[in-house]
Amino acid sequence: MQFLKKWTVKESEKAAPQFVGYANLPNQVFRKAVKRGFDFTLMVVGQSGLGKSTLINSLFMSDIYEDSTYNGSGIRMPKTTQIRSSTVHVQEGGVHLELTVIDTPGFGDVVDNSQCWKPITEHVNSLFEEFLNAESRVIREAMEDRRVHVCLYFIAPTGHGLKQVDIEFMKELCEKVNVIPVIAKADTLTPEECSRFKKTIMNEIHENGIKIYQFPDSEGDEEEAAANKKLRDAIPFAVVGSNTVVEVSGKKVRGRLYPWGVAEVDNLSHCDFTTLRNMLVRTHMQDLKDVTDNVHYENYRCQKLAGFSGSLTPRQNTDPPPSRDPMAQFDVEKREHEMKMKKMEQEMEEVFEMKVQEKLQKLRDIEADLNRRKEQMSLALKQQQQELQTKRKQFDEDKRLFEEEHQRYMKELEDSMRSKDNKKHKKK
Ligand SMILES: Nc1nc2c(ncn2[C@@H]2O[C@H](COP(=O)(O)OP(=O)(O)OP(=O)(O)O)[C@@H](O)[C@H]2O)c(=O)[nH]1
Ligand SMILES: [Mg+2]
To answer: Which CATH class is domain 30-322?
Structure first.
């Protein structure tokens, strides 16, 4: 009865719970991400002279402007006249960060500011377009992510509220990027004025339906939720920019020196500069990138692929990330490919048509040249003919005169001969 023998396994032979190894997955992801490095793009926007260039220089410690003459000794930053993108490679603890800062010229200098956001939104779109093209290539190389992940919008420290141009500008921008409003030159406001100004600004932002960057809810993590609430309360961040090092009670700090004291850039009781930098670099960089990818870029992609027909509804910050169904993805890529082929065909036809037109024009030129030369030659021929005719006439006239002369001479000769003969006869 060997069949019925119960299959028993000795306790010592029992397989110990095996270590498969997928617990190591986060480490693998981490190592891969660290190896690949990170891209982050920050843009500053706002009216002229609010300290945008100064702040981005202060934010990342290193001098972003390689060719700048600014040496941190309080020399005035040159006025920014065009959109300027600077990339610096930052490394900290073996983590590589490709940081791109986009400085934009300040607006508000001209009388008509009705379309002043256009160059900025066009620039943001062009970076999305670049990424979309790289993503839709058949062979995708390692793609650089140059999309704008955050935009610091500078508000003038008037103490009154937002200007109409600020409202319109932010309305346009928040559809495309994560907008974080900041109060510029906060050293010009007292703490009370500053907190009152913050409240006024936030009220106006809500009233006007401006969708600035929302800090995540972080459900389940109380510590993170508390930190995010603190950030939410601090927005718009009141900032002070300066790279001038001044001495405060024997300590060297970055700040703005006034006859009555120093406004310290890194002092949390003076301004929100450190809060802003920590938020950007330490705590929310990935979330800013995720929202850019899942919301703003997806909206751009949908609009682009739908041919701006409006058939696809824009995504909201709270929507789940888009499902990447392979068949749908394939259809999208196929459609893009067809569109590209059509465009190429059209371009080739245009080039062909242009070349044909060029050839025709060349032939027409040659024909005109030939006609001109033919006319010139026939004119010369006519002149020659006329000259010959005149010469011929002259010759005929000369010939006639000569013949007449000759006949007369012959006649005279004959007459003289005859008279001589007659004389001879007579003599005989
Ligand atoms: N009081 C005060 N002045 C500042 C601050 N930041 C910059 N400034 C000064 O403001 C002036 C303009 O600074 P910029 O950084 O050139 O301003 P911007 O916004 O880049 O100006 P545009 O390039 O014209 O748009 C300079 O004289 C700075 O020294 C600040 O936080 N507080
Ligand atoms: Mg500037």
So the answer is: alpha beta
